[in-house]
Specification:
Layout lengths: L24 E2 L12 E2 L5 E4 L11 E2 L5 E3 L16
Antiparallel strand pairs: 1-3, 2-3, 4-5
């Protein structure tokens, strides 16, 4: 998996099942997409990138095994900085 900063968190589980949505695919917890805020993540089920186009094409670039290696639209799920701690 590509480098993910230590302060990144996996995206929260999407509460609505996505089985009947076009463009869904299975996402492993070690896939780069699992760390992106654009993902409607359903571990063990089908997940959906909110930026996928109508024909199901996601913006991520995947390797031969289907794991996302990079994405021009990646928005890491990083918690806001605690401005009170200095």
């Amino acid at each position: 998996m590509p480098f993910v900063p230590a302060n990144s968190r996996q995206t929260a589980v999407w509460t609505v099942p996505l089985q009947n949505q076009p463009g869904c695919r299975s996402i492993s917890d070690d896939d780069l997409c699992a760390w992106c805020r654009h993902l409607c993540y359903r571990p063990g089920e089908l997940s959906l990138c909110r930026l996928s186009v109508a024909d199901g094409i996601w913006p991520s670039r995947c390797n031969d095994d289907g794991y996302a290696q990079s994405c021009p639209q990646l928005h890491l799920n990083v918690p806001p900085t605690d401005i009170t701690s200095r």
